[in-house]
Specification:
mainly alpha; elongated; 100 residues; 0% strand; 7 helices
Length: 100
């Protein structure tokens, strides 16, 4: 990484990258546990979206099989879909620092 060529000069000033964003070779622990915990929030967003998607299936909502009836059926669907405010907050925190 140290031998990588420098980033091409932005003549038009369209990228507007900070010094930190222009650096290459950031250590793994700094990437994973940076100032906003982007990888962790990304994994949480993906997990919540997966749960919302899986509970939207008809057999879960209606509780047509024994497992879904045991897990709650429509109540499970309702609980998972009521997590959208958390999802929205995580999406805002996951946004690039340039937006803030």
């Amino acid at each position: 990484v140290a031998a990588a060529p420098p980033m091409q000069h932005d003549e038009l000033g369209q990228l507007i990258l900070s010094e930190e964003e222009q650096l290459s070779g950031t250590p793994l622990e700094e990437q994973a546990f940076g100032p906003r915990l982007v990888p962790i929030s990304g994994a949480m967003i993906a997990a919540i979206m997966l749960f919302i998607y899986l509970t939207a299936v008809t057999c879960v909502r209606r509780g047509t099989n024994a497992l879904m009836r045991c897990l709650g059926g429509f109540k499970l669907f309702s609980r998972m879909h009521s997590m959208w405010p958390l999802l929205y907050i995580l999406l805002l925190l996951h946004a690039p620092a340039r937006l803030w």
